[in-house]
Amino acid sequence: MAFRQDGKMKLMILESGAKARTVKNYLGKGWIVEACNGHVQDLPSGNGSKQRSKAMWAANKGELPEPPWDWTDGAERVVNSILDKARKSGVEEVYIATDPDREGEFIAWRLSILFGEFSKVFRVTFNEITRSAVSNSISNPSEINSSLVDAAKVRRFMDRLVGYRCSRFSKSWSLKSMGRVQTPTLGFIVEREMERDAHVPIEYHSVHADSHGVRFNVRFHEKNDSEAWFDDLGKHRADRTSNDDLAKSAFKALNSSQVLTISSVNDGIARRNPQPPFTTDTMLQAGSSTLGWSVSKTSRIASTLYQSGYITYIRTDSTRTNPDARKKVRNYVRDKYGEEYLGQGVVGKDAKGKANVQDAHEAIRPSKPDVVTIEASADESRLYALIWSRFAASQMSQSIRERRDLEASVEGSDRALRGTASWRIHSGWEEVYSQFNGEVRTEPPEASLEVGAKWSIEQSENSPEMVTDQTKPPRRYTESSIVQAMKKAEIGRPSTYVSTIQKLTGRGYVKLDGSSLIPTSDGRKLWTDVVPFYNQVEEDIGLFTPDFTSHMEANLDLVETGLEDGPEVWSSFVAKFRDMHNNALSIRKKTATPRQQSLIESRMAHLDPEMRNELMLGKSVEEITGDEAREIIDKLQEIGDRIGYPPSEKQSGLILKLADQLGIGLDEALGLAGVTEIPELTGGGDGTASELIGKLIQMTRDLPSTEAQIELIEKLVEQNEKSLSEVLSTVGARDISELTKSDASDIISKMKSRGRGRSRKKRS
Length: 764
Prior knowledge:
Elements: E1 9-14, H1 17-27, E2 31-35, E3 41-42, E4 70-71, H2 75-88, E5 91-96, H3 102-114, E6 120-123, H4 131-139, H5 146-170, H6 182-198, E7 203-211, E8 214-218, H7 244-256, E9 259-272, H8 280-289, H9 295-307, H10 323-337, H11 378-393, E10 399-409, E11 417-426, E12 454-456, E13 465-470, H12 479-489, H13 497-506, E14 510-513, E15 516-519, H14 521-535, H15 546-560, H16 566-589, H17 594-604, H18 609-616, H19 626-643, H20 649-662, H21 666-671, H22 688-700, H23 707-719, H24 724-729, H25 741-763
Helix pairs in contact: 3-5, 5-15, 5-16, 6-13, 6-14, 8-9, 8-12, 9-11, 17-19, 20-22, 23-25
């Protein structure tokens, strides 16, 4: 399909370079295709200006706030480059083709303003990066969807307000941050760990034997037996017993006998339905269970496949698919396997109108359903094969197995054995999954399936076998299972699953042990010590409960679809948050924070008992209020100014860290201050500990520059269009390897300052 050329130069802006390269191949001459590299402007962030430290901005009634949207890192240079190219090329029409979701619409909105000088600016979207999809979008351009933009704004405002105000609150516990979605997600992980801690293992025995490929388990107890065994979920497990003698007796009988006798046979048919096409969460889960990948790897590889035009958009809750795509894959299945392999087609609840879905996107499927394999990297090919198989399977027939539920007896025991023989008679949808599944039995056992038949017992290391084990605590969450928990609780969205996990690990609240997510001490502290201040609400659900977060996410979805007014949702949230935050502050005043308690205890340590008792008013540190704690700390400061007090834990830790960085012993470091022990130093900003820290920091500045500093310098050199040698000469260095940490810091500071100055000049 050729794109019509009318002599007018056109510009298309996409989010990523990979996507831009794919689309460029479709558009050809007459088009400039550029990438903005994600978000170009966003809420002010970082340190510096007053605007960047604000949690919210004022707004007129019935309107959303309009904060000063700041450039994201490196975006101003990219946008100005595209603008210059467009002006010089005589561009008349601009097509903004960022992702077809809430965040993509926000980026498109900012770009539409930045490129407002051009006579025609259009919004185009496509769910798949194919020639036909791109052509159709250009033929049917639209305007910026204000509902989507409002939803993106409100989400930002919510996250900003909660993040800034609650994170400041959490600093009293020396914690880094709190978040509207990340904190409830952390709660799942911590609560699961607490369940594990509380678990009391119960010993049990099980006995089994194998025969002709069938495992027979001894059935010890019926439900109504006094010794009947039930698992933690209350499920009856007839194959388990706590009676050691009973288990040993059954095992002895199996060991002494060579055969078991079939006493009962029940015929049956097992039909397995295919699953719906992938949504974001099910794709991440399959990436983990089938390919053994982390959710971040699966997400990254999927993004590459989408940007290269191989699959549809990867952030979706929907299982709906395009009728033409279904037709193509059904034709392939019919031609490849035969009519009997076609089914009615399987979709999820959302496609039947029974579930809340964030967007109108299709499920994740191949852009060209009749293309089974692609020319790509090994990882990309594996994930594509999984996505193709899932989509093809959704249009295929059931797999069918014959089964025989067997009961058997063995001489010397009055306990029955039960097993199931199963073999597949029609592969159906499993046919396209053969590369991901193990070997499947397709023939019945060689032994007779008649009552009275004698089956030989396999004699091996594992048959017969008596197993003594204990009940296990609940499994820890993995990356994929926490995504499922978020999805079930409706506290996350396809665009936030991976980033939420990354925040929890990056901020030290959760660590990965293999595939398991384990809360750290800080993670536990945040959930058990800090969150209750916000969840102690008498007549409403707490701020960091899944219910509250789910409600807010649902409101954002309604704003997105135009069913709720963005300013009203934002105003309602602010009112609720203000009440919850003020309530948390009032509760905290009633008791000293852990941070206050720790500071008081450390500074009290060097005072005599009489002075301590006088300051504490006869109370323990756990009994004083927050107001009393502040008064005591002020008095301790006055005392410290007169007589001095020991260094804080933070100061002591920093001295140890700096000494380690310098490769010197603690004795040598303390010798710089003329002492031999850390307690001999004095704390506070004017104390000897602070002076020593200053000396050590100065010494570290003469160490070689870090890898991170070098990478940043190289990036800034490119952004500022300077030569590396010119930049190095400002500190008297000839090669980047000669830079000290101090030199590197000076260069970085100067170049950032130049960049900010240039930005201000351009804006003026």
